[in-house]
Amino acid sequence: MKFKQKVTLALAGIALTATNLVAAQTTLLNASYDVAREFYKDYNSAFVAHYKKSAGKDVKIDQAHAGSSAQARAVNDGLEADVVTMNTTTDIEFLAGTGVVAKDWAKRFPGNASPTSSTMLFLVRNGNPKNIKNWDDLIKPGIQVIVVNPKTGGNGRMAYLAAWGYVRKTGGTDAQAAEFVGKLYKNVPILAKGGRDATTVFLQRNIGDVLVTFESEVVSVEREFGAGKVDAVHPSISIVTENPVAVVERTVTKKGTAELAKAYLDYLYSDEAQEIAAKHALRPRSPALLKKYAATFKPIQLFTVSEYFGSLSEAQKVHFNDGGQFDKLYTVR
Q: Has residue 10 got a pLDDT over 80?
């Protein structure tokens, strides 16, 4: 064989190998909310192994995390995420409204396209020195409350709605709920940008007496900061928060990753994924798993968004859009 032919064959082999490597390393980007960071780290490992076994293909999963609404805006503005996994439906509805995800996204996966749910509770400093037990304690003089800005994160919106709904659930009117929530935000020294930022403010900057956040953040705090730093306080009443998911049609059409993206979100409903979710204090859909992790998912009276707000989209218009109820009761410090 002539030298030139050998070189040509060698180059062809290198090109084929490179092509195979690219094919073997298909990458999927999941744009998600702050507090889900650790869950998806574990879930991604499980999915990669599952996909290799079931489809015979290697895949790499990248994660992008920030406040849920900030993530939705980033995807809308061009972040090439293949899937979005959020903590409020309004953020995905926003993307559906701009054509980035399918208009019928909520029907594409079971359970309103929400494989898990959560609720809002309180994290207090070890020993609960301020004796915080329920929502009424958050409006007492001298109590500093750390929450996420409801305009930048679903964590913040659900905290706001949970407080409002608590008043309604205990027999109060909307006017009384507005007064109560107004008092609560007068005790907020700083609005965090997202769930992880709120935890950082509370634990690293040591600001505040209580952090209102997702139930799942308890596990994250213990992993990152060590057990015994905080106590979890379950209020008597709180809100159901769904964690919706969707395929980003704009991206998967461009990249050819539609099948992989669907498989990634489908697997969230598997027994293995639901078990991982429970270990991260995300409420699984399985009643058996809820019972198995009863020590984590303590009894609490839950209400849904629809009970008092119609829908999250309606709540967005009334409470969180510019000039809405939140702007009326909160004065930027």
A: no
